[in-house]
Design goal:
With 387 residues, this protein is of the alpha+beta class. The protein folds into 2 domains: 229 residues, Beta Barrel (Thrombin, subunit H), CATH 2.40.10.120; 94 residues, Pdz3 Domain (Roll). The strands form 4 sheets. A 6-stranded antiparallel barrel has the order 10-11-12-15-14-13. A 6-stranded antiparallel beta barrel has the order 4-5-6-9-8-7. Strands 17, 18, 19, 20, 21 and 22 form a 6-stranded antiparallel β-sheet that branches. A hairpin with an 8-residue loop joins strand 14 and strand 15. The radius of gyration is 24 Å and the shape is globular.
């Protein structure tokens, strides 16, 4: 695999900046679906025929942000402040509404992504980065018809969004499979809208599971070699039962195009987040209030452990559930509600998956002695990356 320092991790939203008549392409940027029982397909053609009508193209329009302006070669303050600083050109007087200190109106961005229909009432899942900042959202169905959509909610921490269309169409839906049961080597099918060409199908296998790209605290990506490119963002990754086991989100690439290293948010994460978004448009997560780190061999030896295991509590923040429950620096969390904790990511996801106000049982090693502590969780701050 390419060295991650040399390759680029790219979100797979395709975007075009519209400026006047010209255009400049920019680079990388409890739920019960109405679906029939899963069936095992013996060939890709039958699977695609079954699920294709549930996959949609999403087009958004928004004003370019600073990063997108820079990608288009438009520095901050372009054009007036920039040319005044660069060449010493005096700022213009107030004429036609563009006076001194005012900036040119930001260009409009047209972004293209993919989504999939999960309920007949028009609920559609896509990536948060596809609809982030959208002023308008339009959905194009597989038969070419279109409908306006509204954003119900988005969760940037997991890059999941829920949108909804109001239509009288008889919508085809797809259901979620169990991503926990996905296996390396099993065949998968990706459907999306690469480079705005239109709905396209690619096939491959599950290349790896549980990938941490360090893009957020809840990274747990499915890696696939199915071709994924800009515009595939938000598209489904199907197993051979025609069920969604992932949502295509990013690629690792030195060129900006697919080199066979794509990443999908697992369906088990999508189901949990979408249920919360459907409820009130937001996601509330449990919060413990500790700084954590892996238990290395050296730490295990220093603490007198037979082997490295669990998650080390490096610090406990004042006035948090952990402090109130009596957790201490040096404690090792080995399980949450009986589920083993092997890495800091395991603990972060386990706590975040519980609702604020719920009580969890932490199995700890303290001075090499096992104890159990009950902790009543609070709501996780939105800017917090620890447990």
């Amino acid at each position: 695999m390419q060295d991650i320092r040399k390759a680029r991790l790219l979100r797979t939203l395709a975007a075009t900046a519209m400026i006047g008549a010209g255009s400049v392409a920019t680079s990388g940027l409890v739920l019960m679906p109405n679906v029939a029982a899963a069936e095992t397909f013996t060939n890709t053609v039958d699977l695609v025929k079954k699920v294709m009508p549930a996959v949609v193209t999403i087009e958004i329009k928004k004003k370019a942000d600073d990063q997108e302006m820079a990608q288009m070669g438009m520095p901050e303050g372009f054009p007036y402040d920039y040319f005044s600083r660069r060449f010493g050109i005096p700022m213009p007087d107030n004429q036609n509404g563009q006076g001194q200190g005012q900036q040119m109106q930001r260009p409009e961005i047209t972004g293209l992504g993919t989504g999939f229909i999960i309920e007949k009432d028009g609920h559609i899942v896509t990536n948060a980065h596809v609809v982030d900042g959208a002023e308008t959202v339009k959905v194009t169905f597989s038969d070419g018809t279109t409908a306006d959509a509204k954003v119900i909610g988005e969760d940037k921490a997991t890059d999941i969004a829920l949108i909804k269309v109001d239509t009288k169409k008889d919508l085809t839906t797809v259901g979620f499979g169990d991503s926990d049961k996905a296996e390396v080597g099993e065949p998968v099918v990706a459907i999306g809208n690469p480079f705005g060409l239109g709905t396209s199908v690619s096939t491959g296998i599950v290349s790896a599971l549980g990938r941490d790209l360090q893009s957020g605290p809840f990274d747990n990506y499915i890696q696939t070699d199915a071709s994924i490119n800009k515009g595939n963002s938000g598209g489904p990754l199907f197993d051979d039962n025609g069920e969604v086991i992932g949502m295509n989100t990013a690629i690792l690439s030195p060129t900006g195009g697919s080199v066979g290293i794509g990443f999908s948010v697992p369906s088990d994460t999508i189901k949990t987040v979408v249920t919360d978004l459907q409820d009130d448009g937001s996601v509330k997560r449990g919060f413990l209030g500790v700084a954590i780190q892996p238990v290395s061999s050296d730490i295990a030896a220093a603490l007198g452990l037979d082997k490295p295991e669990g998650v080390l509590v490096a610090d406990v923040t004042d006035d948090t559930p952990a402090k109130k429950a009596g957790l201490k620096r040096g404690d090792i969390v080995v399980a949450v509600d009986g589920k083993p904790m092997k890495t800091p990511r395991d603990l972060t996801r386990a706590i975040a998956s519980d609702n604020p106000g719920s009580t969890v049982q932490l199995s700890l090693l303290r001075a090499n002695k096992p104890i159990t502590v009950s902790v009543k969780l609070e709501e996780r701050p939105t800017d917090n990356s620890a447990g």
